[in-house]
C-alpha cells in the first residue's frame, strides 16, 4: 500500500505519461549486486551484448596501429591517399550494405538470434582478414566484418535496454559504447606487442584476434533470455512475464512492479501496432516519427563527423604533423591514448545519471568546438615553422598532442556515453530496430566518407583540414540546442509517445495505474 500511496501523492504528469514505474523502481533501494538473478543477468550481458562494440574499437585501432607497423606497410606497399582511405572505410561500407536487412532479421529471429548471426559473419571476416594475400582480399575481409557488426549492434543495444532494470538501464547502455575503447586498448597493446615479430605474423596475429569478441558472443548469448518486449510482440506473453518475474522481481510472482511492467509493455505495443505498418515508411508517417528520424540521422552524423574518426584512424599521421617522427614513440602514445579513452569513457558513464541528456549533449558539442579550435591554431603554428630549416615549434607540437588527448573526454560525455542510451529511449519498441538502423546508416555513411577523405585532406591541405571540422561542430551546437529532446528519468514505455499526443501517452499510463492498483487492492483483501 505504501508504494501506491507514493504514486498517487506524486501526481506527476508529462507528455510521456505519468511515470508510475519509474517512481516504483526509484523507490527500490536494494542495489543490483544484492539481487542474485539480476546480478547473474548483468554478468551474462557483458560478454554477450555489452562487449559487442569491442569489435568496432578493435577495428579502428587495428587499422590505425598497423599503419605504423613496417611489415604491414611492406606487404601492402605502404597504402596512401585514396587507397588508405578505402581500406579504413571498407568496414563502414560493409555495415551500410547490411542495414536494410537488420529489422527483418531482428523481427524473425529475435534479439539473441541477430547477435548470433552477426557474430558468425564477423568470425568469417576475421579469418579471411588474417589469410589475406593482397590488398583486395584484405578490403573484402573488412567488408564482411562490417556486414556483420550492425546486426549485433542494433540487437545488442536494444536487448540491453529491454532486459535491464530501469534504474540501471542508462549505465548499461552507456557501457555498451564504452566497450569500444576496450577494443581499442586491446588492439593497440596487441599490435605493440607483435610489432617485434619478424615477418607477416606481426600483422596477421592481430587480424585473427579480431574474432575474439564475436566468439564470446556466440557462446554467451545462448545463455541470455530473450527480450520480453520481443516476446510480447510475438504473443508469447507468459514467457515474457516469467523473465521479468525472475530478473526484475527476483522470482516474486506477486510483484506489483512486474504486473505494471507487463501491462505497460502490452498496452504500449498494442497502441504502437495500431499506428504501425511495419514499414520503413513508418519512420516518416507522422510528425513525431519525422522528428525522431531527424534527430536520429543527425546523431548518426555527429557520432562520426565530430572529428573522432580523424584521430581514431590516422593518429600516427597526426603525430607526424605535430612533429613526432619516431615509430616507437608513436606506438607508445597510441597505447596511452587508447587507455585514456577507456578511462574517460568509464568516468563519463559513471556521471550520466546526474545530468539531463540534453545538457550533456550541449556540453559535449560546445567543448568539442573549443578543443578543435585550439587544436587548429596549434597545428598551424607547428606547420608554420616545419618548413624552415633548423626551426621546430616544440611548444605548438606539445599543444597539438594535448588537444588530441583532451578531445576524448569531451567526445565521450555525449557521443559515446549517451548514444545508445538516447536511441533506445527516443524510439518506441515497434520501430526501435529501424530507428537504430537509421542511426547506424547515417553513422556508417559518415564514417565511410570521413575515413576515406581524411587522408586525402591531410595530404593536400594538412592542418587546414581541421578548419572543416570546426565549421561542422558549430552546426552541431546549433542543432542540438534547437532539436534534441529530453528523455531522462522515464521507462521505455513512458517514452514511447514522447512526440505524440498526450492522450495516447495517458492511455498507456492509465493501464499501468489500473494494473498496480488492482494488485494492491487484491493484497489488501488477502490480508484483511
From TrEMBL:
Residue ranges constituting the Major facilitator superfamily (MFS) profile domain according to the UniProt record: 45-488
Molecular functions (GO terms): carbohydrate:proton symporter activity
Keywords associated with the record: Membrane, Transmembrane, Transmembrane helix, Transport
Pfam families the record matches: Sugar_tr
Gene Ontology, cellular component aspect: membrane
NCBIfam families assigned: SP
Family indicated by similarity: Belongs to the major facilitator superfamily. Sugar transporter (TC 2.A.1.1) family.
Official protein name in the record: General substrate transporter
Species the sequence originates in: Clohesyomyces aquaticus
Organism lineage: Eukaryota, Fungi, Dikarya, Ascomycota, Pezizomycotina
Amino acid at each position: 500500500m505504501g508504494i501506491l500511496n507514493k504514486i498517487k501523492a506524486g501526481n506527476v504528469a508529462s507528455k510521456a505519461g505519468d511515470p508510475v514505474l519509474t517512481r516504483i523502481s526509484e523507490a527500490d533501494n536494494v542495489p543490483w549486486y544484492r539481487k542474485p538473478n539480476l546480478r547473474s543477468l548483468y554478468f551474462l550481458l557483458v560478454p554477450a551484448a555489452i562487449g559487442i562494440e569491442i569489435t568496432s574499437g578493435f577495428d579502428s585501432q587495428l587499422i590505425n596501429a598497423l599503419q605504423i607497423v613496417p611489415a604491414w606497410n611492406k606487404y601492402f606497399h605502404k597504402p596512401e591517399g585514396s587507397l588508405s582511405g578505402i581500406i579504413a572505410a571498407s568496414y563502414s561500407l560493409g555495415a551500410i550494405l547490411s542495414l536494410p536487412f537488420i529489422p527483418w532479421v531482428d523481427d524473425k529471429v529475435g534479439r539473441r538470434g541477430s547477435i548470433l548471426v552477426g557474430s558468425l559473419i564477423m568470425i568469417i571476416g576475421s579469418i579471411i582478414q588474417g589469410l589475406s594475400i593482397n590488398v583486395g582480399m584484405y578490403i573484402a575481409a573488412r567488408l564482411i566484418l562490417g556486414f556483420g557488426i550492425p546486426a549485433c549492434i542494433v540487437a545488442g543495444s536494444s536487448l540491453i535496454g529491454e532486459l535491464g532494470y530501469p534504474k540501471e538501464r542508462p549505465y548499461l547502455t552507456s557501457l555498451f559504447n564504452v566497450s569500444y575503447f576496450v577494443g581499442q586498448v586491446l588492439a593497440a597493446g596487441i599490435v605493440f606487442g607483435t610489432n617485434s615479430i619478424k615477418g607477416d605474423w606481426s600483422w596477421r596475429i592481430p587480424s585473427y584476434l579480431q574474432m575474439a569478441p564475436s566468439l564470446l558472443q556466440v557462446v554467451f548469448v545462448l545463455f541470455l533470455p530473450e527480450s520480453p518486449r520481443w516476446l510480447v510482440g510475438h504473443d508469447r506473453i507468459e514467457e515474457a512475464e516469467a523473465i521479468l518475474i525472475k530478473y526484475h522481481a527476483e522470482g516474486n510472482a506477486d510483484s506489483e512492479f512486474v504486473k505494471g511492467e507487463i501491462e505497460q509493455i502490452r498496452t504500449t505495443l498494442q497502441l504502437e501496432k495500431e499506428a504501425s505498418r511495419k514499414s520503413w515508411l513508418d519512420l516518416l508517417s507522422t510528425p513525431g516519427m519525422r522528428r525522431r528520424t531527424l534527430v536520429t540521422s543527425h546523431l548518426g552524423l555527429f557520432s562520426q563527423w565530430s572529428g573522432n574518426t580523424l584521430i581514431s584512424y590516422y593518429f600516427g599521421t597526426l603525430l607526424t604533423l605535430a612533429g613526432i617522427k619516431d615509430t616507437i614513440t608513436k606506438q607508445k602514445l597510441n597505447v596511452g591514448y587508447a587507455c585514456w579513452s577507456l578511462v574517460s569513457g568509464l568516468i563519463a558513464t559513471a556521471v550520466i545519471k546526474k545530468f539531463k541528456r540534453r545538457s550533456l549533449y550541449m556540453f559535449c558539442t560546445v567543448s568539442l568546438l573549443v578543443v578543435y579550435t585550439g587544436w587548429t591554431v596549434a597545428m598551424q603554428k607547428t606547420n608554420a615553422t616545419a618548413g624552415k630549416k633548423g626551426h621546430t615549434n616544440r611548444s605548438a607540437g606539445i599543444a597539438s598532442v594535448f588537444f588530441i588527448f583532451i578531445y576524448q573526454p569531451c567526445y565521450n560525455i555525449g557521443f559515446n556515453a549517451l548514444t545508445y542510451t538516447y536511441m533506445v529511449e527516443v524510439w518506441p519498441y515497434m520501430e526501435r530496430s529501424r530507428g537504430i538502423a537509421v542511426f547506424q546508416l547515417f553513422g556508417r555513411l559518415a564514417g565511410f566518407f570521413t575515413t576515406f577523405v581524411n587522408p586525402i585532406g591531410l595530404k593536400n591541405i594538412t592542418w587546414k583540414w581541421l578548419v572543416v571540422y570546426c565549421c561542422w561542430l558549430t552546426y552541431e551546437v546549433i542543432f542540438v540546442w534547437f532539436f534534441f529532446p529530453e528523455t531522462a528519468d522515464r521507462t521505455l514505455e513512458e517514452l514511447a509517445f514522447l512526440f505524440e499526443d498526450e492522450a495516447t501517452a495517458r492511455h498507456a499510463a492509465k493501464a499501468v495505474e489500473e494494473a498496480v492498483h488492482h494488485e494492491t487492492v487484491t493484497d489488501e483483501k488477502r490480508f484483511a
